[in-house]
Amino acid sequence: MNVCFKSSITALALAGAFFTAFAAAPACAESCEGVQDLTPLNGRIGRGRCIEYQGSGTLNAPLEVQGRLIIKNGARLEAGAELSALKGGEITVRGELVIAKGGVLNLEPMGALNNQGTLHLKEDSRTTLSRSATLSSMGLLQAYPHALLNLEYSALLKLNARSVLDNAIISSKGGRIENRGTLELAAGSRILASGAGRVSNASRLIVGEGSALALSGTTLFSNRKNADIRGRVSLEGTCTLQNLGILNIEEPGQLLLGGGASFSNGHVTTVKGDFTAADHSVFENTNGFKIFESGSVLIKNEAAAVNRGSIYNAGSFKTEDRGSFDNKKYFFDKDNPPPKAY
User: Fold this and answer.
1) 126 lies in a domain?
2) In this predicted model, what pLDDT tens digit does every residue of 220-233 receive, in sequence order?
3) Own/partner pairs for 123-127, CB < 8 Å, 24+ apart?
């Protein structure tokens, strides 16, 4: 006999004996109503109700989810239609969800979408994550040209599988973007992160040629695995880049520090493209930093660079204006001594 418990402590009388069962007992299975057509729902799935959509149709009218919606096979949200997860509402994609051109996906405060299949954000579609909303993708997420994904303060975008932006935009105003899969920015895509947000990579991040990751405010960019920069990564304001993995600035990629931004390299950084620290920004190296023949490092204006690890230079390492370099450990240059310290 299978027994499920809804509370963590349940008293059972078995064979005349009294037992106390704790949380090890299995949770009760959710009861969902299977439907082939969403029209009879009259635009709303109420709190406490679970609907499993088993068809493969098109949604042309607004649908609000305060309970739970499971998309088993496929659904397509057409122009003018809105799919919204309200407070406490949850949308689970096990098949395919297409937000077509002009379609709108809204995750209201405390609303959630879990992608276990495929999520397509088509051209000119709009997806909004309000405060404390969560979009978690364990399947494929594909964003197409001019698709816009907005994150408001404290919203969370969790990418645990493959995610590809093709000339699309993610705009985060104090939200969090966490990549634990493969996130690729291609063909002019942009991630624009401002406020006190966070962008973290714990797997593979590719900023392709012509694409950009632009950070401002007090945003923190943390790399703990592999990040390849072939486009442009810029930090303004008092943003921070913490590298605890492998950061590759590939040719013709650019890493630009401005304002009072800072870059701390605690593991391995390679430069085959360009790295520029300007204004009052700070670069600190505490581990391995290698500049290849095609690579260039420029410390200018009143920016400061400090080396407490090892720097190997086979390309160009220069200071300009009042830019400073303080070498406290190992600096190897195939042709020249370390740049002048101020």
Assistant:
1) no
2) 999 999 999 999 99
3) 123/147, 125/99, 125/100, 125/101, 126/150, 127/99
